[in-house]
Design brief:
There is one protein chain. The chain is of the alpha+beta class. 46% of the residues lie in helices and 21% in strands. The strands form two sheets. Strands 3, 4, 5, 6, 7, 8, 9 and 10 form an eight-stranded mixed β-sheet that branches. Strands 1-2 form a two-stranded antiparallel sheet. Strand 1 (16-18) and strand 2 form a beta hairpin.
Length: 359
């Protein structure tokens, strides 16, 4: 082998490589296959690196997603996996309003929360808006009904910049002049309401339907409104945060007490169930013993009567000793009983027992 030469042992042909120059082997090895040799080397390195690579899922851990402190008191709304706390920041979690507050009439409303802070295993969020499910929104629109769309950007008293997207639906078609008047009235209402209200109160009015009713009342004199629907809201910029409600440590202590109480209740329920099963078993045993005692005298009397009857029947046969008795039809225990009464040996086969009785 020459200096600087390399061989491809996967084939019978040799390839000589000299400082970037390639020469065919003795058999005329095609230079186009040299690329395959280098690709095989790279794939081997990739496989080696893959074997050394650690499993990232083993290093991940669960984080508990909690709703904002006010007004939801750090309620648990979900969980998420992450390798580090900084990877959780910025994640958006969606949940239906029914799951959050138990109002079944608001099952079509999806609430959006964004993680903005992590404390140990807890991911704290802020409310960034809502959205009505598309199928519910489409059911509100029908033929020959009027529809007025409106998008309004407002700033609340505490400096939150919010965008509202709403639609006003009437039972019949709306003129363009009426639609303009309805838009102006709704916009003025939202501007005035937001400027004198905090973001938390605007949330409450939005989610319980109060804001929709106010818009409906102010627009109905212009044209009768059938439905007002805020189908989407977006928090564009946060403002001043007012912390109100229990702290996270207080919530943890309360959850620990609730878990301990549930554990005690489960233990008590298990003990009551075991005691009930034991009581049923004891009562069944007592009933069985009472039945046995009640049936024992009758059984004993019947057995005594049967023994006496048998003895009365067998004794004459034994005493008579006549050869008219059909010993062949009798069983071995009966034959042995007769032999025992006669004072004769009771061992042997049936034929031997019969011969002894006939003697």
């Amino acid at each position: 082998m020459r200096d600087g030469a390399a061989y491809c042992f996967s084939t019978r042909r040799a390839v000589f490589i000299y400082s970037g120059q390639v020469a065919d082997g003795a058999d005329g090895y095609p230079p186009d296959l040299i690329g395959e040799f280098h690709m095989a080397a790279k794939s081997a390195k990739a496989r080696t690196a893959a074997r050394k690579q650690r499993d990232k899922w083993k290093s991940k851990r669960w984080f508990t997603i909690r709703a904002p402190r006010s007004p939801h008191s750090f309620k648990v709304i979900g969980e998420t996996l992450a390798e580090a706390p900084e990877n959780v920041i910025g994640r958006v979690y969606e949940i239906t309003q029914n799951e959050l507050d138990g109002d079944f009439t608001r099952m079509h409303v999806k609430l959006r929360f964004r993680v903005n802070e992590t404390l140990s295993q807890d991911a704290l969020t802020e409310f960034i808006g809502h959205e009505v499910q598309r199928d519910h929104f489409r059911r509100q629109i029908r033929r020959n009904r009027g529809k007025v769309d409106l998008v309004v950007d407002v700033v609340t008293e505490d400096g939150y910049f919010v965008r509202y997207k709403m639609v006003m639906i009437s039972s019949r078609r709306i003129k363009s002049s009426q639609a303009t008047g309805m838009r102006n009235a709704a916009t003025d209402l939202l501007y005035t309401r937001a400027a004198a209200t905090t973001w938390l109160k605007m949330q409450a009015a939005l989610l319980d339907g109060t804001l929709e009713n106010e818009v409906k009342d102010i627009c109905s004199p212009i044209h009768k409104v059938r439905t007002v629907l805020f189908h989407k809201s977006e928090l564009r910029q946060s403002g001043v945060v007012f912390e109100d409600g229990p702290t996270l440590d207080e919530i943890h202590a309360q959850e620990a007490r609730e878990k301990a109480a549930e554990k005690v209740e489960d233990t008590e329920a298990t003990d009551v169930l075991v005691a009930a099963e034991a009581g049923e078993a004891i009562s069944e045993l007592v009933d069985d013993s009472d039945d046995g005692e009640a049936n024992t005298p009758a059984d004993e009397s019947s057995s005594d009567e049967s023994v006496e009857a048998v003895s009365d029947e067998e004794v004459p046969a034994a005493d008579s000793g006549s050869t008219d008795v059909d010993y062949e039809s009798m069983k071995v225990p009966e034959l042995k009983a007769l032999l025992k009464e006669a004072g004769k040996p009771v061992s042997g086969k049936k034929a031997e027992l019969i011969e002894r009785l006939k003697e």
